Amino acid sequence: MSIRPSVQRFIEYLRIKTVQPTPDYSTCTKFLRRQAQELGLDFNVKEYVAGKPVVILSWPGTSPSLPSIILNSHTDVVPVFEEFWDYPPFDATRVATDAQGTDFKIYARGSQDMKIVGHGYLEAIRRLKVEEKQQMLRTIHAVFVPDEEIGGHDGMKLFVESKEFAALNAGFALDEGMANPDKPLRVFYGERAPCWVKFIARGNTGHGSQFIEGTAAEKLVPIIDHLMQFRQTQLQIYKTPHDDGSQRTLGEVTTANLTLLNSGVQHNVVPENATAGFDIRMTPAVDYTEFKRDLEALAEKHGAETEFVQFWDDNSTTATDTSNPFWPAFEQAVTAQGFDIFKEIFPAATDSRYLRRAGVPALGVTPLCQAPILLHDHNEFVKESEFLAAIDFYAGVIAAVANVH
Ligand SMILES: CSCC[C@H](NC=O)C(=O)O
Ligand SMILES: [Zn+2]
Ligand SMILES: [Zn+2]
């Protein structure tokens, strides 16, 4: 059987090597330009940092003065360890799931994270606009941004601060979420805040055979200990079910992982310095300013210094009740398609945080249910049926939120 045109286009998008650290954004922009032409969408590209395009495909609504709908997706993908893949990660190999070819797995880096979403938006717009000739009340902007995987500093951050973004008059946004091995659709209304902190200790050096006092390691070890204990208490909370017996999610607790350790030059030389880097993700209930002060105090107590490589200090969340006029429309469209919603705080960080900080309500959704979580993993794939269902999903959701009065 021949491949559907929508799947063919998806495969073409998956084959573009927008892989960090040297993403091919130029081929990606050309692809998106062609999509805009085919769909009759306005097309704009803006580079806030040279070579890092923010691409905007716009579909004007019948009431263009109403706040618009942003369909956000990042175009970059994370690196691969190719030797661990069964198929080349940028070939988008289509593998039948059974002898009859009832369904296919499409293997590609970025298939889950997040090209199924970005391309899902485009195919949904194609259906609504080109095939069904519908018109939406609100203007829709499908925004394709660079560099989310490395923090979005040269992408979404600058875009949200720009006059072009202000001109979009954004009222509501959709962005990525995460697959769910269980049945409900995970809807992320906030994110944990990344705190990437380095503790740097300096001390006396000397021969490795002596009792040297005030060494860098002696200063660093109690700091590591303290954070490991903190990690343990959070883990206990995480493992303790809610009163109603339901499991806690990562978004409800703060995680801390020791991810970088550096010290030493030679076995018999006591090192002059030692550093420990932690990846901490703070749940929105935490007072971020106080948390930061506590880390600084911890370092000072043991004679070390801190360096905050990343520190997010905004804990805005998006309302998931009638106070957010887009929520009921979203919820209704999603449940009409047979999904149960599971509301969550996103455990990691996405570009949604820039939108929420700017006051734009944003929901993170990746319409993959009863599917393994494969983002950033080897052999990332989506099923063809999942991609086709994503188009239905976005057609329903977009029509609902873009027609909110
Ligand atoms: C501090 S920005 C880091 C952003 C990154 N996002 C996707 O994985 C993350 O590690 O969550
Ligand atoms: Zn992503
Ligand atoms: Zn990612």
UniProtKB/TrEMBL annotation:
Cofactor: Zn(2+)
GO biological process: amino acid metabolic process
Enzyme Commission code: 3.5.1.14
Residues binding Zn(2+) 2: 113, 149, 376
Family per record: Belongs to the peptidase M20A family.
A GO CC term assigned to this protein in UniProt: cytoplasm
Binding sites annotated in the UniProt record for Zn(2+) 1: 74, 113, 176
A Pfam family per the record: Peptidase_M20
Name of the protein: Adenylate cyclase
Keyword entries, A-Z: Cytoplasm, Hydrolase, Metal-binding, Zinc
Domain Peptidase M20 dimerisation span(s) in chain numbering: 189-306
Active-site feature positions: 76, 148
GO molecular function list: aminoacylase activity; metal ion binding
Cofactor, free-text remark: Binds 2 Zn(2+) ions per subunit.
